[in-house]
Structures are given as C-alpha cells and as structure tokens.
Design a protein that fits this description.
Blueprint (H helix, E strand, L loop, with lengths): L7 H7 L6 E6 L4 H16 L5 E6 L4 H6 L7 E6 L2 E7 L4 H9 L5 H8 L2 H10 L4 H13 L3 H9 L5 H15 L2 H11 L3 H11 L7 H15 L4 H14 L1
Parallel strand pairs: 1-2
Antiparallel strand pairs: 1-3, 3-4
Helix pairs in contact: 2-4, 5-6, 6-7, 7-8, 8-9, 9-12, 10-11, 11-12, 11-13, 12-13
C-alpha cells in the first residue's frame, strides 16, 4: 500500500490502533530499497493480516520524511497505537526482517495466555515453560483443586518472577501447616490484601525458620500490586522494619 502525506494519518496512525503497521520509507533510485522491499512484502504476507505494510516514497513525501527524521533509506518504522514502537535502517537479511516482525505480532503463546483457560495455559507452557503470565494463573487453578504438587512443579520452572516465587513459598508454608499464617492466606484469598499483608508481616519476627518464606510471599504480593500501589509502598516499609 502506497501512502502519501494526505493519507498517512488514516492509513498508518489510525490503522495502527487496530493492527501493527510497518512503514517502509524508500525511493526509486535507492538500490538497497529495492532489495529490502520484496523481503518485507513477503514476510508481511506470510503473517496473513496480523501486520500491514505501508510504503512512503521519500522523494514525493519530503514533509513526512522530515517529520520522522529520515536520514538514510531504506528506513523501516513500525507503528502501534499511533506511535513508533520499533525501527531499523538499511537493507536487512530475511532472518532479521522475520525477527523484527515477530516482535510486533503476538506469538502463539501470547494468544494462548490471553485465552486464559486451563488447556490454553498448559499449551502456552509447553511452548515456553518459563512464562510467568501462564504459570501463575495455571498454578492458581491447580491450587483451587488442591493439587499443590502440580502447581509447585509449574512454578519451579519460572525464573525471575517475584509473584511466582511468592506463590511457591506460600505452597511450601501451607504444606508445613503453620496455623499462624492460615488467617493471612484466607484474607488474601478473599481479597482483603491489606489484612493479609499485615498478618504476614506481623508473623515474621517470631517465625524462625519460616522468615524467608514469609518474606517471599509478601514480596510476591507486592510485585502483583505494582510499584504505583500505595498499599505496596506502605507494606514495603513495614516489611523492612520487620526484617531489620
């Protein structure tokens, strides 16, 4: 699709709110542009409507070229929600173009996680066993069925997720049968996060061997609350005081 200064807003910016749009800034005299063009076209065609390609002739649309600071061509910019989210300059081999487009189009695992049912989450983890966004909801489904062993096995495959580590620590604490934590977990399960955190943090000074596991549970809950949560900020201060 050829795009001009008059059609760019509609064909690229507005359209990118529905599907990623890759814009190829090129010119007829540019040899590398002629090399890259077919590679882009074929790669986009293979994605069957998941991404669209727009071509801008920089000689005929110099205002657009200036607006997007095109200093060398071919220049490729990917738009989502009206904004540039990825770009490269110069002719690239097919493998590099494929990787570039893969970063714009949801993977099969992404789509499965979005579905959210047990079968989809299991399939997502088959494709990528370390995905926290699939492991956490699946582990919670299993815990609801009291299948702690399966939930723990899934969570152990996840690295770098405080939330997954915290849920795994909770499973370990529940196995130990600590009565002082039962009310804290019940509060978390019923949505009373503030009370649950208060009870967990209050248990730390006398928890002896369970201190680190309780800390991991608290950190996991705080991670899910997010950095902008006032409750999380307050709980972090309480946790630091209880630990040190």
């Amino acid at each position: 699709m050829d795009v001009t200064e008059e059609t760019f807003a509609t064909a690229v910016l507005d359209r990118s709110r529905e599907v990623p749009v890759v814009v190829d800034f090129w010119a007829e005299w540019c040899g590398p542009c002629r090399q890259l063009g077919p590679v882009l076209e074929q790669a986009v065609a293979r994605r069957a409507g998941q991404v669209e390609l727009a071509k801008v002739d920089t000689d005929a649309n110099q205002e657009l070229a200036r607006a997007f600071r095109i200093q060398g061509i071919p220049a490729v910019k990917a738009f989502k929600d009206g904004q540039v989210v990825a770009e490269f300059t110069g002719a690239q081999p097919p493998q590099a173009v494929e990787r570039f487009l893969d970063g714009l189009v949801p993977s099969e695992a992404d789509a499965l996680v979005s579905q959210g049912d047990e079968a989809a989450l299991r399939r997502a983890l088959e494709l990528d066993p370390g995905r926290a966004d699939a492991a956490l909801p699946l582990a919670r489904l299993l815990l609801a069925r009291d299948d702690r062993d399966s939930a723990a096995a899934i969570l152990r495959n996840v690295a770098g997720s405080f939330a997954a580590d915290g849920l795994l620590a909770r499973i370990e604490l529940e196995r130990a049968g600590s009565p002082q934590l039962r009310d804290a977990f019940a509060a978390l399960d019923t949505g009373d996060t503030e009370r649950g955190l208060d009870l967990l943090i209050a248990a730390i000074p006398t928890a002896d061997g369970d201190r680190d596991d309780i800390r991991r549970v608290v950190v996991g809950v705080l991670d899910e609350l997010g950095v902008d949560s006032e409750l999380a900020r307050s709980a972090r201060r309480q946790l630091a005081a209880a630990l040190y």
